[in-house]
Amino acid sequence: MKKILHIGLILLVTIGLYSACTKMDATYKQYVVPGGLTYTGKATSPKAYSGLNRIKIAWLRGADPSVVKAKIFWNNFADSLAVDIPPAGDTISAMIENLDEKNYTFVIRTYDGKGNSSIPVEVVGGSYGVKYQAQLLTRPVNSTIINAKGVLTINWGGADVSNGAFASEVKYTDVAGNVKYKTFSVDLKTSEITDLKPGTNYQFRTIFKPDSLSIDNFYTSYSGGGLFAFDKKDWKIIAFSSQHPGSDNTVTNFIDGTDATRWHSCAGCSSYPHFATIDMGVERTITQFGVWRTTFETGGDSRAPDKIQFFTSTDNVNWADQGIFNFNRLINGEQRYLIPNNPKARYFKFVGVSGPENNMVMGEISAYGL
Predict the structure, then answer these.
(1) Of the residues 93, 127, 161, which one is the last residue of a structural domain?
(2) Which of 237, 280, 276, 277 shows the shortest CA–CA distance to 361?
(3) What three-state secondary structure class fits 14?
(4) For residue range 112-131, what is the model confidence (pLDDT) as tens digits?
(5) What's the CATH number where 70 sits?
(6) pLDDT confidence tier of residue 34, bands split at 50, 70 and 90
(7) Please, which pLDDT band fits residue 2 given cuts at 50, 70 and 90?
(8) Which of 95, 107, 185, 251 is the 20 to 30 Å CA partner of 331?
(9) Percent of the chain topping pLDDT 70
(10) Does residue 362 share a domain with residue 237?
(11) What burial class does residue 69 get, using C-beta atoms within 10 Å of its C-beta: 0-12 exposed, 13-18 middle, 19+ buried?
(12) Does residue 2 fall inside a structural domain?
């Protein structure tokens, strides 16, 4: 009898469980997709490439051959772009144009021909525009030196690498009359132009990439090359008034490239005017002279002249007076003198006209122009 009751109890429990499961299935039947959901292969390894008011989205094709299109969403799904998936190729890409300058979160879904989609994949990127452009600084040119052979050496200042400066571009006209562009890495401290057309100048600007994935370069405006300093390695002193004995006092120190040496005229055996005549080795158009007192020994020697004068010549025979100028013998550093007529000359003569003592002590001289 107990066995019959036990079997009956088991039957009642089984019937109750079956009834409950049947009701549960009926409750959730409306939410069940027959055959299950189908997901297409998702976008693989997506990247966002920044640009000028645009962003390029790219990802690897993946292994799902059923994928025929994709959609890229941004601005919280308010904007989207449909992308057809070509039958061949390893990478899928799309360009999103006319974007405001800011960061974006993009969502990519792929689709097959039946409308089944992949799980969403996010990628973050930014576009750049006038705000970024406005903060870019041109890498300065500290000096430009031209030698007797016409080779131009550009000495660069510091580049704005924190904002993505990676190169300087130089635009110039070559000896054949062609406009040329040369690009130099910001890692270079100096650059050379070997074929500049005589009598012409150059322009330069700085090239930026805001980040390593940028598809666009950004440029500063062109700046003029400015004055050329004539290379003193080509210079020779062919005449001078006097020099004091000893290598520390020689007249060649006047053109050795530093104001830390000195030309000392003969002390006790010379008087004003004192002069030095320089052959630059080639005819140039002179627009300025630069003159320094010496910083040798005392850190600044006041025995320089108060008045100086320049003469220029093309043949070392006929000389043109370019004027008398005041020189401040109490300060260090270069003092520049504009030559109004911009004379053509191969030779020039520096003259110390008057000063506090009979002898004269000078540091350095430079000439500028084209």
Answers:
(1) 127
(2) 276
(3) helix
(4) 999 999 999 999 999 999 99
(5) 2.60.40.10
(6) low
(7) very low
(8) 251
(9) 90
(10) yes
(11) middle
(12) no
Amino acid identity, residue 196? L
For the entire predicted model, the pTM comes to 0.83
Per DSSP, 200 falls in state -
| Alpha-carbon dihedral 231, 237, 241, 246, rounded to 10 degrees | 90
36, part of any domain:
no
Please tell me the predicted confidence (pLDDT) of residue 289: 98
Reduce the DSSP state of residue 255 to 3 states and report it: helix
Half-sphere exposure (CA, 13 Å, Cβ side) for 311?
18
Q: Which domain holds residue 147?
A: 132-226
SS3 state at 212: coil
Between β-strands 320-326 and 218-219, what pairing exists: parallel, antiparallel or unpaired? unpaired
The CA distances from residue 85 to 16, 46, 60, 105, 120, in Å, are: 54, 15, 11, 22, 17
Overall domain count for the chain:
3
> H or E stretch including 341?
none
User: Which strand (E) or helix (H) includes residue 176?
Assistant: none
pLDDT digits (tens, 9 = 90+) for 275-318: 999 999 999 999 999 999 999 988 899 999 999 999 999 999 99
CA–CA separation, 184 and 153 (whole Å): 12
Place of tokens 């049947």: 22
How would you classify the pairing of strands 228-230 and 141-146?
Answer: parallel
Report the percentage of the chain scoring pLDDT > 90: 87
